[in-house]
Amino acid sequence: MIAPLQILLFLLLALAGPAVVLTRNPVPQSIAVSFYGLVLAMIFFLHQAPDVALSQIVVGAIALPLMILLAVAKVKSREAAGK
Amino acid sequence: MKLRLALFTAGALGLAAVMAAGMRRLEPIGSYHGAYGEVLNAVAVGERNSTDVVSAVNFDYRGLDTLGEEYILFTSVLAVAAILRKQKDEHDEAPDQFREVPASDAVRLLGVGLVPVTVVFGLYLISHGAVSPGGGFQGGVVLASVPLVVYLCAGAKTFLRIPPPALAKAGESSGAAGYVLVGCLGILAGKAFLENVLPLGRPGGAWSAGTILFLNLTVGVAVAAGFVELLSSFVEKALKR
Q: How many Cα atoms sit within 13 Å of B194 on the Cβ side?
């Protein structure tokens, strides 16, 4: 037995995963990875794991993309200084 | 190129077939066959007065594992601080110069509304870890995101002024030490390390579950301070001219 909401979320996840890989520019990619993290959190919540879902939201959807953005900002500022 | 496409198509079709077959036989949401979980679900609320069994496992039955996890964060913050420290050849000509992009009025208005709500939600998650889903870790990260909202609204200079760097460092280490100290209460009471020796209160109340509440508070302080420390050292490095 598989619930309709499960099917929907699994399909979203199956779309979001390749979307992260196929986005080549790191800045939009960090947004894509954030969306992927959010879908994962919804799946955890649906499967009755609200504690894990909360951790997933704060780390996967906020902290990780932020670290990527800051790292990209650092690299870009160095490139700008080198020119 | 054609060979690659053919290989991919064959692989993808095979994966799709296996996944579809597996998902068709998936158990319904919430079904569980495990003796340990059933036992904990039956005894945790009565034994520890914690209505969130996940917190009871994390901070009581398996409290030692969480101690190890907390020190993972502690070590990674330490490592980042060591990597991002001021290098010898780095000169600090203009310490207050940041590349600032002024925030729009809409972003600033949203931020003003978001800051108090986020503070309250973070404190709620930390203090009610034993009652409802959440706890020190989740609440700590939520609290640490408050300075980021301030950064989005008011810029890097204001972000780095709150909270004072000394306070963030002190919070990180005192939170990590606090977990061990709360654990030592058990030894002082003549029982095991991390044993729940404090009054258990009433199940569902804010002051309940004994040491679980206090362990959540120490983890909340350590995680919030650790993340702020991490983010501010990143922001400082990334946005300096």
A: 18
Taking the C-alpha atoms of residue B90 and residue B84, their distance in angstroms, rounded to an integer, is 11
What pLDDT score was predicted for residue B178?
A: 83
Nearest to B206 by CA among B134, B118, B117, B115: B134
Q: Distance (Å) from the C-alpha of residue B174 to the closest C-alpha of chain A?
A: 23
Distance from CA of B26 to the nearest CA of A (A): 6
Backbone angles phi, psi at B240, to 5 degrees: -70, 145
Domain that holds residue B126: 51-86+97-239
Structure-token pair, residue B227:
């993340």
Size of interface A-B (CB pairs under 8 A): 58
**Other C-beta atoms lying within 10 Å of the C-beta of residue B216:** 30
Q: Which residue, B89, B231, B73, B57, is CA-closest to B156?
A: B231
Beta bridge partners of B240: B98
In-domain check, residue B25: no
B152 at interface of A, judged by CB pairs closer than 8 A: no
Instruction: Return the residue matching tokens 């979203």.
Output: A12
**Looking at the domain assignment, is residue B46 inside a domain?**
no
Cβ(B222)–Cβ(B74) below 8 Å: yes
Task: Give this prediction's pTM.
Answer: 0.77
ipTM value, please give it.
Answer: 0.74
Q: Is B240 helix (H, G, I), strand (E, B) or coil?
A: strand
CB contact under 8 A, A55 and B138: yes
